Sequence to fold (180 residues):
Amino acid sequence: MQAEEIARLMAGSGAQGAGERPEDEGFMLEALAEARLAADEGEVPVGAVVVCGGEIVARAHNMTEGTKDPTAHAEMLAIRRAAEVLRGSVHRLTGCSMYVTLEPCAMCAGAVVNARLERLIIGAADPKAGACGSLRDIVRDERLNHRVPVTRGVLEEECSGVLKEFFRTRRAEKKHPKEN
Ligand SMILES: [Zn+2]
Fold:
């Protein structure tokens, strides 16, 4: 956790957005920690945690490069891990919430619906691929038999900042490759 984040939390600033709950920033910080782990591994930094009964039951970060699996998005991994942990104690992931630092893509949004998540909390919007309100809105599509309430913009600056920083560093490294 970075100093300015702790200061922010302690100051209790962070005007709450639509549907935001007091616990949301704390859990989003945990998702951010996962995103930073991804960055350390050279992965696009997106992190997610699944919360059930007020506890984190699964955490994951994007691993598409390392695993060479294009479906290894943070949300997919977090949902699979949560399902393993909860194994049958709940129907799918009913009653669970997912916190993710970047708006889920179409694949992950589909998984969120199939998991029957109770709530989805998003950090930064993804205008290029977001399927939870940006390009389309799969999780709140009236035609589907399950819809997931969405809270957007929790720690938005921090969540988009970690992505911006990652791509800035990557561009700089491409321009000036390290000599060794
Ligand atoms: Zn995805």
